Amino acid sequence: MNKNNLIIYIGILIFGLAAPYVFPAFKVQLSILCILIVLAITWNIQGGEMGYNTFGNILFYGLGMYLCASVQVGMFFPLAEWTESGGEKTFVHTPAQFFQGMAAGLVVAAIVPTIVAGLIGYAILGLRGHYFAICTLGLGVAAGEISGGIEIIGAGQGFTTPPFPNVGSLEARGEFFYFLSFLVLVLTFIAVKAIYTTRFKLILNAIRDNEDKAEAMGIETMKYKIIGWMISAFFCGLAGGIMGGLVGYIDSTDVAFDGREMGVFMVLMAILGGKGTLWGPVIGATVFHIFKEGFWTFFLGWQYVALGVLIVVIVIYFPEGIMGWLREKYPERFGEVVDEADRKAQVEIK
Amino acid sequence: MDFLVFQYPMITVQACLDGILLGVLFALIAYGMALQWGVMNIINIAQGDLVILGGYIAYFMYLYGIHPAWGVIVAPVIMYFVGIAIYKLVINKVVDRDLFISILATFGISILFMQLMNFAFGADVVLANSGYGTTMLFDSNVVLPNSKIFSAFISILFAVCLVIYMKKSKLGRAIRATAQNARAAKILGVDTEKVYAATFGINAALCGVAGALISITFTIHPYMGLPYTIRSFMIVIVAGLGNLPGVAMSGMGLGVFEEFADYILGTEFRIGSVFLLLVLILVYRRFKLSRKREYLK
Question: Do the chains contact at A305 and B272, CB–CB below 8 Å?
Answer without folding.
Answer: no
